[in-house]
């Protein structure tokens, strides 16, 4: 797909300042959108109320402008659209593809003997077979709960039309990539504190914004299998995907806010120019 119909997005979370890895992804999205003659949008993925901060959102906008990137306004902020994600969650629940889970993280760790593709304890399905009356009673009492995808029910529906997979693209070439979402098990689609998860919000927003090409880091490639399932269940299109390599530090670890990787703001204050950043990242 090319021309004005091509739409990409750069979608950071405002839980810290951008670093070189974010800069690479933002610049790559912009370049591919330009090559396709399309448009790249900015989205602020701020569903985490504990970690998202307005000052980081302002910092993201400032850093991107400093790099020479501009985006169509208004920019979508996920925190302002919780009712939409709740409706998507309820759609899955009404079709018996999702159920409430009352288990704590410690309970899941104690009962799990495997991990999902993110390395988290694989949910053992404790609440999947709860009596509906007990489930409703516990919800009415206000017991904290997440919502989980019932993978055993979801897969037959998702696979009903054809093979599960997506088209991966790179430099004009495309190839079909079949996926197997089963290793994710009954993944969380809505958290205790908000009516969504990253997975549910991102597939909803990609469809809503007409995203045709998703360009994101290789660390999210495994999640694409889960996203394809959610897209099928919700009747949403599956974009083309490109999972780019990650920018690493001197020890070969991917850059991360949690490890204190130097931010673009730090580099700016140290006198680094946007041209130097672009050259360092191959742009």
Helix content: 25-40%
Q: What is the assigned CATH homologous superfamily of the largest domain?
A: Glutamyl-tRNA Synthetase, Domain 3
β-strand percent reads 15-25%
Strand order of the largest sheet: 1-2-3
Written as H for each helix and E for each strand, in order along the chain, the element string is: EHEHEHEHHEHEEEHEHEHH
* Uncertain parts: none
Mean pLDDT: 95
Inertia-based shape: globular
CATH topology of the largest domain: Glutamyl-tRNA Synthetase, domain 3
Q: List the quaternary state of the chains.
A: single chain
Radius of gyration, in Å, reads 20 Å
- Main CATH class of the largest domain: Alpha Beta
Q: How many domain regions?
A: 2
Largest sheet: 3 strands, parallel
Summarize this structure as a short list of keywords or feature phrases:
2 domains, three-stranded antiparallel beta sheet, 283 residues, Rossmann fold, 10 strands
Task: Characterise the protein shown here.
- This protein has two domains: 116 residues, 3-Layer(aba) Sandwich (Rossmann fold), CATH 3.40.50; 128 residues, Glutamyl-tRNA Synthetase, Domain 3 (Glutamyl-tRNA Synthetase, domain 3, Alpha-Beta Complex), CATH 3.90.800.
- Helices cover 36% and strands 16% of the residues.
- The protein has ten helices and ten strands.
- The strands form four sheets. It has a three-stranded parallel sheet. A three-stranded antiparallel sheet has the order 4-5-8.
- Helix 7 crosses helix 8.
- The longest helix has 16 residues.
- The chain starts with 6 loop residues before the first strand and ends with a helix.
């Amino acid at each position: 797909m090319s021309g004005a119909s091509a739409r990409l997005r750069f979608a950071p979370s405002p839980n810290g300042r951008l670093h070189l890895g974010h800069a690479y992804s933002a610049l790559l999205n912009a370049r591919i959108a330009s090559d396709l003659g399309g448009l790249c949008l900015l989205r602020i993925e701020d569903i985490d109320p504990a970690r998202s901060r307005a000052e980081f959102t302002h910092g993201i906008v400032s850093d991107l402008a400093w790099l020479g990137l501009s985006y169509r306004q208004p920019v979508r902020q996920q925190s302002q659209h919780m009712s939409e994600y709740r409706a998507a969650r309820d759609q899955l629940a009404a079709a018996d593809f999702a159920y409430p889970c009352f288990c704590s993280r410690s309970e899941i760790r104690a009962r799990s003997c495997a991990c999902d593709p993110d390395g988290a304890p694989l949910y053992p399905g404790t609440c999947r077979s709860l009596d509906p009356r007990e489930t409703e009673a516990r919800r009415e009492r206000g017991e904290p709960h997440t919502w989980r995808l019932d993978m055993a029910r979801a897969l037959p529906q998702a696979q009903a039309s054809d093979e599960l997979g997506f088209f991966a693209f790179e430099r004009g070439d495309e190839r079909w990539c079949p996926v197997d979402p089963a290793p994710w098990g009954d993944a969380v689609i809505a958290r205790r504190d908000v009516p969504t998860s990253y997975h549910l919000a991102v597939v909803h927003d990609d469809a809503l914004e007409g995203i045709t090409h998703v360009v994101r880091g290789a660390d999210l490639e495994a999640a694409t299998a889960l996203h394809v399932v959610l897209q099928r269940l919700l009747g949403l299109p599956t974009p083309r995907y490109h999972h780019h390599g990650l920018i690493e530090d001197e020890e070969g670890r991917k850059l991360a806010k949690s490890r204190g990787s130097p931010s673009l703001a730090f580099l700016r204050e140290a006198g680094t120019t946007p041209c130097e950043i672009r050259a360092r990242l191959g742009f």
